Each structure stands twice: as structure tokens, then as C-alpha cells.
Amino acid sequence: MNSRRDVVLLITHSGDYFTVDRVFAALSKRSCRPFRLDTDRFPAAIKIRAHFGNSGCENWLEYGDISMRAEEVRSVWLRRIWQPKFGEELTPEFQVACARESLATWDGFWDGLRSARWVDDVERIRAAENKLRQLRVAREVGLRIPQTLVTNDPAEVRAFFYRVGGKMVAKLLKPLSYSMKGSPFFLYTSAVKEEDLADLETLRHCPMVFQEEIPKRRELRAVFVDGRIFVGALDASKYAESTVDWRCGTPDACVWENHQLPPTIAEILDHFMAKFGLTFGAFDFIETPSEELVFLEVNPSGEWGMLERDLKLPISDAIADALLADDPS
After folding, report:
1. Fewer Cβ neighbours under 10 Å: the N or C end of the chain?
2. Is residue 3 pLDDT above 70, yes or no?
3. Rounded to the nearest 10 degrees, what angle do helices 315-323 and 19-28 cross at?
4. DSSP assigned state of 25
5. pTM as predicted
6. Alpha helices in the chain, H assignment, sequence order
């Protein structure tokens, strides 16, 4: 039995690629044991045991031919927590119940890792995913934010549309895709036209986010890792005017360029991340034609693989360094 506390747990899913592989490779060069945990393989291919008693508790995990105790985990990279996969032998109703119990079991297992260093803690990530809280904190620390309305009231949307001069976009509060490839079902940020105002009754089924459309010179993805910032920029003039969201453009249009944030903005991001207690975050900004930066959102487990792939930015090494930093908390 290995009693060393040298395991670095990489929490992801079996369909994840590139980013988790890069971090695994970066960690393999250091004095630790990276352990990839594909959460969608539980409970079919992963076994968990948690023993509790008055004398203490133990948590074990087995995945393939590898097993580990919670006490061996030095640090955790929370990349993704995924829904379990079930076969057709389970009815849909039973699948729902099994998925709920599986995710609850994971929550208990994460609690058994509370003494490890997390990048980042589950509860902190969940708190930071609140887009309205992000906007409030961004404004408090000094970032410019777009005028924003969240509502299920069609009349409010119409009034807001005219208040921003007919330049308005719509998007969701929660993402529907979590990878470099995206998802077959994904609602991108999209422009709202005046004719769309006649079809707002569906808001009674699903409230949405509406924002003023910010004129853009560039779109920035700024990846914050434990105080280090890596930035990629897209030249907005290189894709169609109708493309509000770069993710729905053609691959040839998404040519990432190296970029840097002004020192004042970089300092503000330090304060922003401290407010949420986060080590990692992927920020989205718009740079206006007058070179002002407008904060859109931060994803506390956001995508960065394209920046390392296309710009050779050492983000995976920065994450590995953060995972192995001293003073676990």
C-alpha cells in the first residue's frame, strides 16, 4: 500500500481531451502521481467505498487496475463533473434516480478530500458560476460591464431594447457546452432584432439574459492561473458582422493572437478572483474600438486548450504549478 500523499487527482470525464492530457503530462514531469478520474464512468466502472465510525473514516476509490485512498491525495484539479452513463437495461426513471444518487456520492467523496489543495473547490466554483454575482463583483472591483437585464417579462425586454438603441443580445445564465468541441445543443450569444420582439412569450417558460451589444475591436479570452494571466485575442473584423459569438463562427475565422492586458486590469482581476476565493478562471472581455475593455463573464472551469494549442501559452504548466504549490488550503 502506498502511504505517500502524492496523488494529484484530475476530475474530468471520458470525452475530455487535450487540456486534461496536457496537465497530466505536465504533472508527470514533477514529483507526484497524476490520477485521471472520469466521473461519467461512475458507478459502472469506478468503485467507491466510504467507511465511517466513531474511531474515524476512510474513503477508497478504484478505477481500472488503480486504487487510492483519500489520504494519498495531495491536490485536486476540478476540470469537469459529469453525469453518469447508463445502459438501456435501466428505465429512464431509474436512470434519473441512479444519477442523482451517484452525484450525491461524489459530493460525499469530495468532502473526504477537503484537506487537499483544490483548483478549485466545488462550492467556490458553484458560487462563482452565478453570472449575476459575477457582474456585481466586476462592477465593485472597477471593471466596466454591459447594461444587463435578466427577466421573464416580455414588456421589460421591449423597453430595454429601445433603451439600448436596438443594439441588444440574448444569452443563457448557464452554459450548455463544456469542451473545446462544444455540444450538439448549444445556444450561442445572439443578436436580437426588432422583429424578434413579437415572439417573446416563450420567456414565461425560460427567463433569459439580455445585454446591450458592445461594439468590438477584439474579443479576449484571459486565463487566470494563481496570479498568472494568459491572453488570446480574436480580431473582430475577421469574421462576419452577423457573428456576435466567436464560438459559432467558422474555424478559419478563429485565429488567436497573443495579447496582454493593461497592468491596471490585471491587478483588478487579482481582486476579482480573491473575492471568489478562486485560483483559476477563464475571463471573456470585449475590447471596444476605443480600446476600452468590457467584462462579459468568467468561467471558473473554462476552456483554454485553444490558447495553449495555437499560441503555445504554458497554461498546463501553470495549472500544474498551482496544484503543487505549498500551503494546501
Report:
1. N
2. no
3. 60
4. H
5. 0.88
6. 19-28, 92-111, 122-128, 131-141, 154-163, 263-276, 305-311, 315-323
